[in-house]
Write a structure and sequence with these properties.
CATH class of the largest domain: Mainly Beta
Shape: elongated
Number of domains: 2
Number of strands: 7
Distance between the termini: 49 Å
Largest sheet: 4 strands, antiparallel
Number of helices: 9
Length: about 325
């Protein structure tokens, strides 16, 4: 059942099955996923509203049955009751007298309060519903039951779909790291993909809330240049919260991911390809005692040219070998 719903949702929502690897050596590719307890937490958040909705369906079904039976009994009793003559009306005699005193505001409020319907128990609530139902036409109950059955069918139909969406939100979280960059893709309804190069990384922080500590989960937040520092990164809750913050959300091996990123960042910058703000220094001018290009020995120029030709020959041979 879940496999069919999963295939239907991925096809209907046009979600790619997995992200393309970011720039870097294929042998350095590492893929991380969210922890299993994160899936359990998501499913618990899904099951709570489902149980509440199921309890509401049962409650209102019982209420509707009880009210319908009571209304049917009262209407049947009224139909078989003997007709009674209307009471005789007595015309009051008009006598001269002082006008009645005007009602005070306090007495008016007390009378209005007495006319209000107060629902203190189940019997009062049921009587209120019965009085409302007695004013409805006879065909209203079949219509209510038709709507009730339609709501139950809609509730049953959404269970596998909402379950598949919650589980897909867990399965479609991809955290990919290479030796040169990282890529994070999340989301089912709205797919978000964030790629960062190690040349722009500034900070790697591991954060863990109380619930995450209980479940053995943590977040790894990677801050890039221009993100406003670690304070703003601490308030981001997902990879899409900031274009300068990548979040490995609810992973079980947060320390391993942090150490891997820091080690690869160190190696990346050790090769001289790291910080883009580090511009190469301008070449120093030749001293006045340096020989001019015309004074360079022709023997050294010939040796350089021969070496260049040898390199070109080896490159062509390598190209032919790869072409085969």
């Amino acid at each position: 059942m879940y496999s069919a719903c999963r295939a239907f949702l991925l096809h209907w929502l046009k979600v790619p099955p997995e992200p393309h690897p970011p720039a870097g050596a294929p042998s350095s590719l590492r893929i991380f996923r969210a922890g299993k307890n994160y899936l359990n937490l998501r499913l618990l958040g899904w099951a709570g509203p489902q149980l509440i909705a199921f309890g509401g369906i049962i409650f209102w079904t019982v209420v509707l049955l009880d009210v319908e039976n009571t209304v049917r009994e009262q209407r049947s009793a009224r139909a078989h009751a003997p007709a009674t003559p209307p009471p005789a009306t007595v015309r009051p005699t008009l006598e001269a007298g002082p006008p009645p005193p005007a009602a005070s505001p306090d007495s008016t409020r007390r009378k209005a309060g007495k006319n209000r319907v107060r629902i203190n128990d189940w019997a009062t609530f049921k009587n209120l519903l019965v009085n409302v139902a007695l004013r409805l036409p006879a065909w209203s109950f079949p219509l209510i039951w038709l709507l009730k059955v339609g709501g139950i069918l809609l509730y049953l139909a959404q269970i596998p779909l909402t379950y598949a969406i919650r589980r897909l939100d867990f399965e479609m979280r991809w955290y990919v790291v290479t030796d040169r960059s990282l890529r994070i893709r999340t989301g089912v309804w709205q797919v978000q993909e964030l790629t960062m190069s190690f040349a722009n990384l500034q900070q790697v922080v591991v954060s863990q809330g109380p619930l995450q500590r209980l479940l053995g989960l943590a977040d790894v937040r990677v801050q890039s240049a221009g993100g406003g520092g670690g304070a703003s990164a601490g308030h981001a809750h997902d990879a899409g919260d900031s274009l300068h913050t990548a979040v490995f959300h609810s992973v079980e091996n947060a320390t391993e991911i942090r150490d891997l990123i820091l080690e690869r960042l160190r190696i990346f910058r050790a090769t001289g390809l790291g910080d883009p703000d580090e511009h190469p220094a301008a070449p120093a001018p030749l001293p006045s005692s340096s020989p001019s290009p015309a004074a360079i020995s022709p023997v050294s120029s010939a040796a350089t040219l021969a070496a260049a030709r040898e390199l070109l020959t080896e490159a062509r041979a390598l190209r032919r070998t790869l072409g085969q």
